Amino acid sequence: MILFYIDPGTGSMLFSIVIGLVTMLYFLGKAAFIKVKFILSGGKATTSKNHYPLVIYSESKRYWNVFKPVLDALERKAIPTVYYASSEDDPVFSVAYKHITSEFIGEGNKAFTRLNFLEADVCLMTTPGLDVYQLKRSRGVKHYAHILHSVDDATGYRLFGLDYFDSVLLSGEYQKAHIRLLETQRGIKEKELVVVGCPYLDELQKKVADLPKRKNESFTVLVAPSWGKSGILSRYGASLLDSLVQTGFSIIVRPHPQSKQSEKEILEALEMRYKAAQNLEWDYSNENLNVLSRSDIMISDFSGVIFDYAFLFNKPFLYVNSNFDARPYDAYDLEEQPWKFRVLPEIGVELQENDFGRIGQLILETSKSSILEEKRKNANATAWQYKGKSGEMVADFLVGVLAGLKESKDM
């Protein structure tokens, strides 16, 4: 018996090629069928029963806070919308919308296959990488819109993450410049860039107001890293956590959700190492607001949770990013440093490995800084525009795109 091994990267490329060919043949065949049907019907126009005006795709239930304010606004406007979910337990299925139809379409390649055959006027998603790998631009979709799911740089995605969208919805004006630079460098079509605010922060702000008041707990440090080789747990792991445990502070470690898949061995080794530590706990809850609220200061790296913490709670943080590897990201193609890394030294304190020996003192100094507190407020105003209005603004934009497409069709 001869066995063939295909590595994940090659498999992904083969899937992309096959799906591309299949979708092309599908739409060519459908176009021919519609043409024949048009002739046989005496020239009467027909429409596909599977064509939708507006589709929203959510690749995970953790993006519910991004889409809920938008769906609520669309519901109020009575705009028929189809919501495709890749989480079978997505919160959308427990909401009794009248104008929103929700459907579970599976995960990964199963979901991408469904989306690659999509027929819709407009499709909105948080998923980047359109027309790069498995997720292809469907010939049946007229307009693809991307909405950022954090107040981060728009160039923080993997290479070509936003290149082939028709529009990108931003949280602040500062995100526009670098997208335009990449478009010029790569010779690609300019996208429509619209500042709409940040739906998920608007939604979380409501929840923060309803959180129970914090009980008398000891001083608490939250470690909330991103994942990958540049993340805290992968880069420093025990050397950082050992120093934190020795401070006597209460320590909460909340790994990125992707770490449970991509860094499973690292997490298992660390959990075993600190199994007996009385002042260290692990948090894997779906939503992070409670643990953010419980802590007095946070340590992170290049994770967007930094801004959730600073903007929702105006609490201090330490960050580690001096050795961040930008090569896999769009930001690598830019000479100017991303906004995130320019603003971090102004609103937080960089933590370096040689600081681990005095980390307790550094934590206390950072937590008492009134200068950092004021600068966090200024950054908040820059990155999170139109507070409380983002859902309506996104809905208005989508309705405008639909109207424009209808108008061009009628001309």
From TrEMBL:
Gene3D superfamilies: 3.40.50.12580. It comes from the Bacteria. The keyword Lipid biosynthesis does not apply. The chain crosses the membrane at residues 12-29. Keywords: Membrane, Transmembrane, Transmembrane helix. This is CDP-glycerol glycerophosphotransferase family protein. It comes from Sphaerochaeta associata.
